[in-house]
C-alpha cells in the first residue's frame, strides 16, 4: 500500500516536473521570440533607413557632379578661351582646389584634343602645359558625349581609373561627367569633362555602413562589391586577383532573387534587405550613360553568425538550449518551486486521503463504516432493482463480544472484532460490500447473488471461523449469529426493510442457540 503511494507520488512529481519545465521552456521561448522579433524588426528598420541614406548620398553626389560639369560648360560659353584663356584657367584652378573632389577638369575640342586641363595634385590645382595635353579622340566618353544635345550629361560607370591602358596605382575610383560645348552659331565646339574622385563617395557610403550593427555593402549590376568592410574584396571586375570576390558567387541563390526584384530575403545565410538604385530614374535633367550600368544595389545583411544567429532562431533546439542556458537561475527556481509544490501537494493529498479514509472506513477493521457502507449499499440496491439482478444481504452479530471484553479485556475484544472482519474479507468477493454496522454487528451485501449462492458463501465463512477456532492462535472463540435475506423488488421497498428482515433472522438464530444451551 505504502509502496503504491510512493510510486504514485513519484509519478506525479515526474509529471509535474515535466509539465513545469515544458511550460516554462515554452514561455521562455515565446518571450525570447517576441524579444528577438522586436530586435530584428528594429534592425531591419534601422538598416532600411541606412540603405535609404546610402541611396540619397549616392544620387545627391551624382546630382552635384551634374551641376558642376554644367557650370564648366557655362564658364566656357561666357568666357572666350582664346582671348581670356588665362582667366578661365585660373577659375578652374580655384574651383578644383575649392571642391577637392575632382582628379581633373578639362575642355576638349571637337577634334578630340585637350585644350585645357587642370590636375588636382597634393591638394593643389595644377594647370597642365600645352605640351602635355593629349589626344582623347578615341576615348569612349568623348565619342559618347559628342552626340548629346546641349545640356545633356554623360555619366560613366563607377570604376577604377586607367592610364595608358593600365590601372593607376594606387587604385583611384572614378566617375566621369561630360557635357557638349555647343556654340549658338558655330555649333559643336567640343566637350567639358570632370573626373570625379569617387573614393570620396565610397568613403561617405562606408561611414553610413559603419553605423549599422550588421553588414551594409554597395553592389554594381553584376554583383561586384563597390564597398565592403574588407576593402580587398572591392572592384573585383577590374582587379584580376579579386575576381572571385563577388556577391553573385558568395550568395548565388540570394543574387538570383535580388535581380528578380526581391527586397527582403531570408536564407540559411541570414536576412538580406535590398534597396535598388536606378540612376536613370533618380537623376534630374537629360542624362546619358552610353551603355554603362545604371543599376546599383545597396544591401544590408544580418548574418547567421554568433552575433545575430539568435535573431534567426525560431522554435529550434538550438534556441531552446540557448534560452535554457541563459536562464539557468530561473530554471533552478522553477524546479525548486515544482519540488516544493509537489511536497506540499503530496502532504495535502495525504491529509485529504486520510480524512476521506477515516470518513469511509472503520479504523479498527478497515471495512466500510456505517455511513459509507449504507450509502454504497443503497446505490447498489437501487441499481440492481432496475436490472432485476439478484443480491442478498447477510446480517452478522458477534455472540460473545461482551463475554470476551469482561473476561479478557477490551483489547482482546477488539482483536475478536478484527479477527472476524479478516475472515469476512478473505472469504467474500471484491464486488461484495462489507460494512461494520455497529459495535459487534456487520452487514455483507452479496452482489449478483441469490439465496443459494449466498448460503454457499456463508458456508465458507463458517468453515473458516471453525478452522480459526480450532487453532491455538487466539485465546477466544469466534461465535456469531447471522441472517440472510435475498432482495425481492416486490417485497422490499428499501435497504432498511432488507436489513430489518435479515436482523430478525439473525435474532431468531441467536435465540435458538440460547434455547439449545439451556
List strands and helices in order, with pairings.
Elements (H helix, E strand, L loop, with lengths): L1 H77 L6 H15 L2 E8 L4 E8 L2 E4 L12 H7 L6 E3 L3 E2 L1 E2 L2 E2 L5 E11 L3 E11 L1 H12 L4 E6 L4 E3 L19 H4 L1 H8 L4 E4 L2 E9 H4 L4 E2 L6 E9 L5 H4 L4 H10 L1 H33 L9 H18 L4 E7 L2 H8 L1 H18 L5 E4 L4 E6 L4 H20 L9 E7 L8 H23 L1
Parallel strand pairs: 4-14
Antiparallel strand pairs: 1-2, 1-9, 2-3, 4-8, 5-8, 6-7, 8-9, 10-11, 10-15, 12-13, 13-15, 16-18, 16-19, 17-18
Helix pairs in contact: 1-4, 1-9, 1-10, 12-13, 13-14
Shape: rod-shaped
> Number of DSSP helices?
15
Structural class: alpha+beta
CATH architecture of the largest domain, by name, is: 2-Layer Sandwich
Separation of termini? 48 Å
List the uncertain runs.
none
How many individual domains? Answer: 2
Give the proportion of residues in helices.
40-55%
Q: What is the CATH class designation of the largest domain?
A: Alpha Beta
Give the averaged pLDDT, no decimals.
Answer: 87
Oligomer: single chain
* Named CATH topology of the largest domain: Beta-Lactamase
CATH homologous group name of the largest domain: PAS domain
Biggest beta-sheet profile: 8 strands, mixed
Percentage of residues in DSSP E strands: 15-25%
Spatial extent as radius of gyration? 53 Å
What does the model show?
The protein has 518 residues and is α+β, with helices and mostly antiparallel strands. The protein is built from 15 helices and 19 strands. The chain has helices at 2-78, 85-99, 140-146, 199-210, 247-250, 252-259, 279-282, 309-312, 317-326, 328-360, 370-387, 401-408, 410-427, 451-470, 495-517, and strands at residues 102-109, 114-121, 124-127, 153-155, 159-160, 162-163, 166-167, 173-183, 187-197, 215-220, 225-227, 264-267, 270-278, 287-288, 295-303, 392-398, 433-436, 441-446, 480-486. Strands 1, 2, 3, 4, 5, 8, 9 and 14 form an 8-stranded mixed sheet that branches. Strands 11-10-15-13-12 form a 5-stranded antiparallel sheet, with helices on both faces. It has a 4-stranded antiparallel sheet with strand order 17-18-16-19, sandwiched between helices. Strand 1 and strand 2 (114-121) form a beta hairpin.
